[in-house]
Amino acid sequence: MKESLNRVKIIVVKEFRHLFRDVRMLAVLTFFPVFLLLMFGYAVNFDVDKVPIGVYDNDKSELSRDLRSALTASGYFYESVQINSDEEIFAVINSNKAKCVIVLHENFSKDYYRGGEASLQYIINGTDGNSAGIIQNYLTSFTAGYSNRLRSEMLEANGLTEYIPVDFRPIFWYNPELKSTKFLIPGLMAMILIMICVITVALSIVREKERGTIEQLDVSPVLSYELLIGKTIPYILLSFLSGIFILLAGFVLFSVEVKGSYTLLFISTILFISASTSLGIFVSVISDTQQVAFSIATFASMLPAVLLSGFIFPLESTPAAVQVLSFITPAKYYIITLRAIILRGAGISAFWEQLLLLIAYTSLFLILADLVTKRKAMKQ
Amino acid sequence: MQDSISNKVILSVSGLRKNFGTTEAVRGISFTISYGEMFGMVGPDGAGKTTTLKAVCGLLTPSEGQINLFGGKVIRSGKSTQRRIGYLSQRFSLYGDLSVDENLDFFARIHGRKDYKKDRTSLLEMTRLADFTTRPAEKLSGGMKQKLALACSLIHKPEILILDEPTTGVDPVSRRDFWMILSQLRQEGLTIIMSTPYLDEAERCDRVALFNKGTILKLDNPVRMKETCGFRVFEISTPVIREADDLIRSKFPFAPQLYGDRLHIIVEPGSKIPEQILHLLTENGIIVLSSGYITPSLENIFIKSTESEHAG
Questions:
Q1: Domain total for chain B?
Q2: Set of chain A residues whose Cβ sits within 8 Å of the Cβ of B113
Q3: Distance (Å, rounded) from C-alpha A188 to C-alpha A339?
Q4: How confident is the model at residue B1 (pLDDT cuts 50, 70, 90)?
Q5: Do residues B176 and B268 share a domain?
Q6: What is the interface size between A and B, counted as CB pairs within 8 Å?
């Protein structure tokens, strides 16, 4: 046992030497998480904010100016262009100077003061359906609020008190500002960890095969599991460091704090890294060259982690077949767990099934790797 | 050199067969090696040398047959046997980004050696790598790389050294150095089994097995092999080697072996063929600079053996 541990230690030291001397790999492992964090934190953002709107104000009254002022005061919209004719509306939308045009007709205030219905029109560019939907929701909410305010003022002026039969007051838990960054950070952590684990572990093992050094180790007291443990420990540690870095950056840059238990976070991360590492080991077993290993590892880790894990797209709204397919990535289980721990501060009862799935995933791929290795050995 | 060879068998290979799919890489070979012996395996690419060596190292499972090393059966990944082997594979298989020292340290420590510093120093001196201890292995020349690989395979004091074409692609000076080291190891009593494509290297071994197409054509001491080969080599030197070759081929049912400006004709003892060939050449105006019987080389024997096999 002591000898075995000593051999693992020797391999770990060797692996760290490789890692620190491979400047390109080290740079990728260091800067890739930073790059993804900044990109997903700042560039990839599903929030609709500071929307440019065109204003076609035919009324030019005190009321129309008040409405426009109230609309832009929210910070979600700003007036990017004034429109003076019907033809200009098309040009403004088409040139993307405004994502939405508000049309206030010439009798807007007159209709209101006469006690009639003062209508206004929103023309929204629907090319980006997601953004258009969010803009529509914002405008509907704004219009309802503004309308309520006018009604209250009118009733008050006439000495009446407003009566609201059903008062609608939504409360958003866990992410009250509805910031998509908070939703993305846990997914991002899963994506970075799975990539580091699968790709680096697969490459590091296949490198030994490709360079023939594994033959030298085969004719030595080193057992195959000692080699695997020794070769994966540095990358597991590196993954942990990346995880800590992402959590810190998420807190400092995006105010994403861990609301739940750090112990559960640690345990779930260990299980996820184990699952990802087992996938990396399996990739290394079926690959003979680093090029092949890199292609398979990237394909097996990144694509499912982005598309099938619920990282960006809610899995509930995908077709049933995709939901079944989503079981192939451990990132799915980890993201569910992370969101529960980090955003909701939930206990283990909220995600214990995910942890079991991670354990099952680890076992499955280690067994598969073992079977393939034995099959290959029989052929040799 | 023969004196240090013990009668005790260190390795015995019996009826070894190895198939890769439908390809028969090794076809039922048998041989034994004694402690302290330097055993050479010679043959062209694909002859089965590497497969045999890998099977001996426990890197491949034989399809048939048995290998016994140190008195025990060799099984795939059998660590108790493997830890007593020093193996140098055909291609450079050390860590290029680790220094000479780091490679040696790694292989010593992985074998559980703690008191290896003195041996490391002597190995570095023997391989003339003492001045390059901090140099990354990938920055060494081809010959130095092979010497480092040899040092790494010796650092744990193996009982048998298995070398798979250790000097292939190595410059002549490094090759000579390499052989000096092997001779020293041989004198110290280390058992060495090696494959090589070079017949001149094979002549330095205590015994040589001539491999071809997965079988052993001949196995003996090189000197004895030459003495008992059962044929003579008649050498003819001529400036018009191609014409002479064509002429002989057209009149006789065999092909001479060509070596630069010399033709080697393998004949039975007492054969009249050499006189007939000389007569044929002079009759056709081909100048013969010199002619006469020479001692058969391993190459002659190897070519003759492969021809006999084809004829058989």
A1: 2
A2: none
A3: 11
A4: very low
A5: no
A6: 77
